[in-house]
Amino acid sequence: MMSGLRHLAVCCSAIAAGSAGAHGYAPRLAIVGATIVDVAHQGQSNKDVSNSIVLIGDGRILAVGNRAHVRIPRGVRIVDAHGEFLIPGLIDGYGARRNPRFSAAYLYEGVTTVVVPLAPANSAIDGEATLVRDPSGPSVVTIAPISGYSQDGDVPKTSPWTDHRLRDRRLGNAELKRAVARAAGAGARVIAAEQDVWPDQLATIVAQAHRRGMAVVAQPAFTTYPQAIRIGVDAFTRNDHYSLAVTPPALFAGYAEDPRGTGARPAVRAVCHSEGLQDGIAAFGGQLARSKVALMPILSMEATADDVGGPNPWTLRSAAFVTPADLDDPVDPATGARPYLEHQPDARDRIRACARSKQAIDRGLHAAGATYLAGTATPSFGVIPGGGLHGELGLLHAIGLTPREALAAATANIASSFRLTDRGEIAPGRRADLVLLGADPRMDVAAVDVIVSVILGGRVIDRAGLLSAAQAQLAAKKERS
Q1: For a Cys staple, 395 with which of 89, 299, 380, 390, CB 3.0–4.6 Å?
Q2: What angle do CA 178, 238, 299 make, to 5 degrees?
Q3: Rounded to the nearest 5 degrees, what angle is found at the Cα of 261, between the Cα atoms of 307 and 330?
Q4: Residue 16, pLDDT score
């Protein structure tokens, strides 16, 4: 990320002389003195810049370097960041924007981009049906679903899928191309290939999406995971889905026949016993390491639902922005009870053991070289916007990622995998979405909780104002009810 300081020195000489920068904009803001944390190359790089200067103009980063290479023009507002650590704005790769308070909660916690999976037109089961756009809030990137059969991206909600596989009409190449074009026209940056997409269909979707600069994520069933890797998808989402790839082929075939019904149960049960799946973990992990396909486990969802490694979400700072009614199956604020476990009291121990087994699978896949992305599935099972992503980084660290790798999972990795080339790193030309921390995130990823300032598009956010406004809104809402 910070390679090429000679280039930066040339870049900045014109700015130092008082003229506009390389992008034609004069700097308006300078962040001075921070240590820039390098998150490039999946968190494997360490070209940090101490005593740095970052010049910002028109919402973009104009120049980056240390005092020996960058001079500050007159009249620029200076943010003194000596002793602090500068990271790119965080990206929640699987979130929601249901109301303005979600937007405020994200920003309060340094989340400057939220990726929102949209529901098919006739269903709210597989995505968000409500998307509130707030021009003053985090940038929103949408994911559009595409089915192998349905024009609106929907898949059957009944099981088994035998009739779906044998009798329903598959969409042809021309229809799939039009579906990608419609998604792009609606502003989507990412395509979600649904479980009922076949390999030839997936190849068409990936080719068309990539031609348009869009990414493709998948939870394949009719297509195997190795096939999807060879076709070139960008990421697999949800470890309760992609962990099935480490099961024996016969079990995955049963899942593929009936991915949302009883046919999937043998494979799902096998995932609950990771100690017997080491060969599959090594094989799948090796395939991932040799590819550019990343994994987004969404550990927060299961940790919160099953009470395995996640805090009570109501203890998080950003809980002050939401109410239980804003969330899906929320944890009880008073008792901490988890509704998913309460609905199945006799199965609690088994459910928790299975969740830990999936975490162990991810630990093995990471050790084999898989790249990870951070997403929360906010507000599923009561995951809190903003604070949920901080928790996700801690959970990623718990499965073996270093603090720097966990940071990369919520910044550079997801920007790269989702082809968001305008953010995710601190470099000239990128969006000026930044977070200043008062503690060193290279030593402890929990430093993301120690926020000094959040900068969105070059604008320093009034975090205290966000909190007071949200509390006023909640108070007014309570009074009306």
Answers
A1: 299
A2: 145
A3: 30
A4: 44
Q: Which amino acid is at 57?
A: G
Q: At 157, list the tokens.
A: 């909600």
- Please name the CATH architecture into which domain 90-417 falls: Alpha-Beta Barrel (3.20)
In the beta sheet, which residues pair with residue 143?
Answer: 117, 190
Q: Which stretches of 232-289 are assigned E, i.e. beta strand?
A: 235-237
Nearest-angstrom CA–CA distance, 348 and 341:
6
What is the assigned CATH class of domain 5-89+425-469?
Answer: mainly beta
Q: How far apart are CA 125 and CA 154, in angstroms?
A: 10
pLDDT at position 163 is 84
Give pLDDT, residue 432.
98
Could you state, in order of their start, the residue ranges of all structural domains in the chain? 5-89+425-469, 90-417
Structure tokens at 147: 């089915």
H-helix segments, 186-323 = 199-211, 225-231, 239-242, 249-257, 265-271, 278-289, 299-306
Residues of the chain with pLDDT under 50: 1-20, 22
The token duo for 283 is 């094989």
Which letter does DSSP use for residue 128 in this model?
B
- Write the burial class of residue 168 (CB in 10 Å: 0-12 exposed, 13-18 middle, 19+ buried): middle
End-to-end Cα spacing for the chain = 51
Q: Are 114 and 456 in contact (CB under 8 A)?
A: no
